[in-house]
Design goal:
It is a single chain. This protein has one domain (about 25-385): Tachylectin-2, Chain A (5 Propeller). By secondary structure, it is mainly beta. The radius of gyration is 23 Å and the shape is globular. The chain has helices at about 5-20, 35-40, 165-175, 365, 380-385; strands spanning about 30, 50-55, 60-70, 75, 80, 85, 90-95, 100-105, 105, 110, 125-135, 140-150, 180-190, 195-200, 215-220, 220-230, 235-245, 255, 260, 280-285, 290-295, 300-305, 315-320, 335-345, 350-360, 375-380. Strands 2, 3, 6, 7 and 8 form a five-stranded antiparallel beta sheet that branches. It has five helices and 26 strands.
């Protein structure tokens, strides 16, 4: 080999090395602590919650729909055990993403649960709402909610004599002693969130136990309403729809049977997805694609799927993230659940996603507020839809 050839190969090798080493690295999921700090407060705001559905509003702000949540003051990372737990509230993030405002009944000092089910005269059963998802039409916000009631027959009791149980023990029993009665639809006037009316969604929940309303997508003149049907070892995904120009959104739904839309809920067929869908999940449109994001219902992994349709053929399963809280929890009590996408907050090609953190021991959420604060992460769109940004 002559000298010229050796030099040429060395130069070529160097150029290839430089080219490879200068290629941009694959984008990765990152933690978004800035949004978490915006969302939660140590006083005068939400100090802990789960749920965390979000709906963008016409003025550029977003309202987050919270399930069980706390206000009050946080001292040295703890909350007083006397802090009342609200069954639901809203958290409003302004259009500049600089301020969060808790929306409750009562005051921030003495807050009350925001949405409460109507009760019939003489009904003493404790009932409450866990908010699902919703949508906006014109100046009205519509929110689906699971109407729950206390039923001690489904409870695993705290194994202490009644005289030895404290407030936290009784709270734990109450939290897990429930059944779902029905799905309701509530409406609110914007921008001040004045309650307008509440209606039961007109299908027989006891005969057709599909938790409709835990994901909503407005697309091409329809409101698509998704829900899970929880089987013994698997959770199926179902979808209904109603026209966006409907005068009432709580009845006259159509249900997808796998090929066509039917008026009878008994013909609703599950959308085939290679995952046991979480109780709360997201389906949203990005460009001309529809993205499904969900945690594995019994695990801590977040997956995405994509489709050309909002109601079928979700494939392209991609693992995105494994929540670290359960891996690094020495007590074995923490768990994570219900990842949700917030597509109005795509920034530099990075999708905002939240997931909930909780403990099997209710005391933990008082002794360390981080044990009951959702986490926020950013998933690159290119990791969901290769070639997109």
């Amino acid at each position: 080999m002559d000298t010229f050839t050796k030099i040429f190969r060395l130069v070529l090798f160097a150029q290839i090395f430089i080219f490879i080493s200068c290629e941009p690295k694959t984008r990765q999921v990152i933690v978004d602590n800035r949004f978490k700090e915006l969302f939660y407060a140590d006083s005068n705001g939400i100090t802990g919650a789960d749920g965390i559905f979000s709906i963008p509003l016409p003025n550029g702000s977003s309202v987050f729909l919270l399930g069980d949540c706390f206000l009050g003051k946080v001292m040295d990372g703890t909350r007083d055990i006397k802090t009342p737990m609200l069954r639901n509230a809203f958290n409003l993030i302004d259009s500049d993403q600089t301020h969060a405002t808790a929306i409750v009944r009562g005051t921030l000092i003495d807050p009350l649960t925001l949405m409460e089910p109507p009760c019939e005269s003489g009904d003493t059963t404790y009932r409450w709402y866990w908010p699902g998802h919703g949508f906006v039409r014109s100046d009205t916000l519509y929110i689906f909610a699971l109407n729950l009631y206390t039923d001690r027959s489904v409870n695993i009791f705290i194994s202490k004599p009644e005289g030895e149980k404290d407030e936290i023990d009784r709270m734990a029993e109450e939290m897990f002693s429930f059944r779902i009665k029905q799905v309701d639809l509530l409406s609110f006037k914007l921008p001040d969130f004045t309650h307008i009316e509440t209606h039961r969604v007109e299908f027989d929940y006891q005969q057709n136990a599909i938790d409709f309303g835990n994901c909503v997508l407005v697309d091409s003149g329809y409101v698509y309403i998704y829900g899970t049907k929880n089987l013994t070892n698997f959770s199926e995904l179902h979808v209904a729809r109603t026209p966006l120009n409907s005068k009432v959104f709580y009845r006259s739904w159509e249900y997808f049977d796998g090929a066509n839309w039917r008026s009878d809920i008994k013909e609703s067929a599950p959308i085939k997805v290679d995952l046991s869908i979480s109780e709360q999940f997201s389906i949203f449109r990005y460009g001309d694609k529809y993205i499904l994001l969900s945690m594995d219902r019994e695990g801590s992994d977040i997956f995405t799927f994509s489709s050309n349709s909002p109601y079928k053929n979700f494939d392209g399963k991609k693992f995105q993230y494994s929540t670290p809280e359960t891996r690094y929890d020495s007590t074995g009590r923490l768990f994570t659940y219900n990842a949700l996408a917030h597509p109005q907050y795509v920034d530099d090609g990075m999708l905002l996603v939240s997931y909930c953190v909780n403990s099997f021991n209710v005391r933990d959420v008082f002794e360390n507020v981080e044990n009951y604060r959702a986490r926020f992460i950013r998933i690159p769109i290119s990791c969901i839809l290769p070639g997109e940004s």
